[in-house]
Automatic annotation (TrEMBL):
Associated pathway: Quinol/quinone metabolism; menaquinone biosynthesis; menaquinol from 1,4-dihydroxy-2-naphthoate: step 2/2
Pfam families: Ubie_methyltran (PF01209)
MF term (GO), any: demethylmenaquinone methyltransferase activity
Coiled-coil residue windows: none
GO biological process: menaquinone biosynthetic process; methylation
Protein name: Demethylmenaquinone methyltransferase
UniProt source species: Roseimaritima ulvae
Family: Belongs to the class I-like SAM-binding methyltransferase superfamily. MenG/UbiE family.
Length: 231
């Protein structure tokens, strides 16, 4: 499928104004719970900064900042329209939002104690390059975390979720977001093609992360993947 930067950026530019409302509607607000669980699992050890890539409208970056007000938090994304919304939500100006491609992060090596991505890595054209960049800018001993959709394993749930995801969600999404380029058709396709479970852990190991593990959320509808950069 076409995951070129131009296509993905344009798609998110079009849905940006309705992205948050759509997210909460289509996931019946469970996305908020997932991000909270991701924040709970962060290993924040000191006051070194935390980076959230593909931050979009900033929900994870803002949740991290709320939990750790003394820690600098940076949110990066290559879609300016999404970042504008993130910035508008950040009334306290607590998070530094900046425009950057996750495959070419504008940071020196070893900068951040944690590097996170929520529902973003799936959209990055070169998954391994995105993971390698997250690992590069992470401090030795620091944590890399990926929150992403996955496929439930329980047979009945797998079937009903598959139906919802393939047939209901794209229609409701397209109607609500009024998106020409079928962003919500893209969603099930991109999830279907993206490695999940052990396959993604293997990719994380391949870029050099250690102690990798996966925690399924909501019976495997989403998963938190974690790894550490060797100390
Ligand atoms: C589904 S949204 C997720 C936003 C947010 N993290 C959340 O949890 O709601 C995916 C985001 O990834 C961004 N994105 C996709 N590919 C990217 C890349 N190569 N570099 C930077 N951002 C990218 C898009 O612009 C979009 O804002």
């Amino acid at each position: 499928m076409d995951k070129s930067g131009a296509r993905v950026r344009e798609m998110f530019r079009q849905i940006a104004p309705r992205y948050d409302a759509m997210n909460h509607l289509l996931s019946v607000n469970i996305d908020r719970l997932w991000r909270r669980q991701a924040v709970n699992r962060l290993r924040v050890r000191d006051q070194n900064p935390i980076l959230d890539v593909c931050t979009g409208t900033g929900d994870l970056a803002l949740a991290i900042k709320k939990r750790h007000p003394d820690v600098p938090v940076v949110g990066s994304d290559f879609c300016f329209a999404m970042l504008q919304i993130a910035h508008a939500k950040d009334a306290d100006r607590g998070v530094d939002f900046l425009e950057a491609d996750a495959q070419h992060l504008p940071f020196p090596d070893h900068q951040f104690q944690c590097v996170t991505v929520a529902f973003g890595l799936r959209n990055v054209a070169d998954t391994d390059r995105g993971l390698a960049e997250m690992m590069r800018v992470c401090q030795p001993g620091g944590q890399v975390m990926v929150l992403e959709f996955s496929t439930p394993t329980l047979p009945l749930l797998k079937q009903s979720y598959g139906f919802y995801f393939r047939h209901v969600l794209p229609r409701v999404g397209q109607w609500f977001a009024r998106n020409d380029k079928s962003a919500y058709q893209y969603l099930p396709e991109s999830v279907g093609q993206f490695p999940s479970g052990q396959a993604l852990l293997d990719r994380m190991t391949a870029v050099g992360l250690v102690d990798t593990r996966a925690k399924q959320l909501t019976c495997g509808v989403a998963t938190i993947y974690e790894g550490s950069k060797p100390a």
